[in-house]
Amino acid sequence: MSVFGSSHFGLPRLKPLSAKRTQIVSVLDIGSTKVVCMIGRLTPRAESQILPNRTHSIEIIGLGHHKSRGMKNGVIADLDAVESVVRLAVDAAERMAGLTIDSLIVNISAGRLQSDIYTATIDLGGQEVDQADLKRVLAAAAQRSQRQDRMILHSLPTGYSLDGERGIRDPLAMFGDVLGVDIHMLTAERAALRNLELCVNRAHLSVEGLVATPYASGLATLVDDEVELGCAAIDLGGGTTTISVFAEGRLVHADAVSLGGHHITTDLARGLSTRIEDAERLKVVHGSAMPNGADEREMVSVPPIGEDERDQPTHVPRALLSRIVRARVEETLELIRDRIQRSGFSPIVGKRVVLTGGGSQLTGLADAARRVLARNVRIGRPLGVSGLPAAAKGPAFSAAVGLMIYPQVADQETHAAQGGLIASLAGNNSRIARVGQWLKESF
Hints:
By secondary structure, this protein is an alpha/beta fold. Helices cover 34% and strands 29% of the residues. It is found in: Cell membrane.
């Protein structure tokens, strides 16, 4: 199924998971550092007290990952290069699983992700709330969010109100005069989604669902209490850092900044005059986000940038290397702190922050985050998944595992927005547009 519905019009709705049958789910995490394809077997299971919304146990049966090419800050810069890496990752996962896949759930970090809360109310006339009323109020809220240049990735009701009383989770069968809803719409620029789908299609695969990277990372790393009480998950990727805020069991806010681990590497390459791959190794082996007294005395060997064998490596104090790393880390964390503050969700996040993504493995990063964000910080690894090799159990694979979890929570979303979306994409003359119009009028 195409991401833009049949003939490219309208986001797909994931088929609900069966509560009785085992299913195979395949996902693709296209990042600036690596591309990961996972194939998992989802088996229905009893409800868990620890991990929220997990209706199925997940066993990874196929895994392929490859160094990313053609991506810059989460955006596709070279279609051919990204397509070839996608093929390699998918091929490796298929070989390991011993099966062929034709569609995938894919993540998106680019497209200037934007979170907005829309509110709508409808008149009930003193009657009890039924399913048709819920559809009507959700459609009214979705209608207010329509924009030509953007597409809705996720639409999650964050709470209902009845006659002005807020904080109602499920108003079905309750009586009242006025029903209201607050709905969280997470949107992305249409062009970014089209390019992503085009890239996957060129590898002879189709996109079954699109998930915002911050949502996926939060699903993989947060435990029940964090999701209920309020918590921010910060995914430090290679080209982008994404933020998601969860509260009362739902995603309530998401954001992304175009800074990541790769920016630290390029700073080191420039500052120490060495090649990108050597700078990456120096960052991983010697880099630290926190100052250390021994850094001034310890010397680090920096390989030369040229090909000339007579060029000798230079030796610099480790403190210089750490200063370069620290400057960029602090800039990124301060930007995240300001974004959380500006979003208005700072009180909901409270003192709880989970860091994940490949960048979170940098030495001293959790301590630096505690200092800059002034919050409790833990490093989040993907939870509750079996069959992952040791190398893929780290924070770098959180987004991919989150995509595996997503089908279990997809039914929390409202798809009332799709009617207007299909119509706006297709132009007003086509059959698709007329279907969209009918959907709009019927619900």
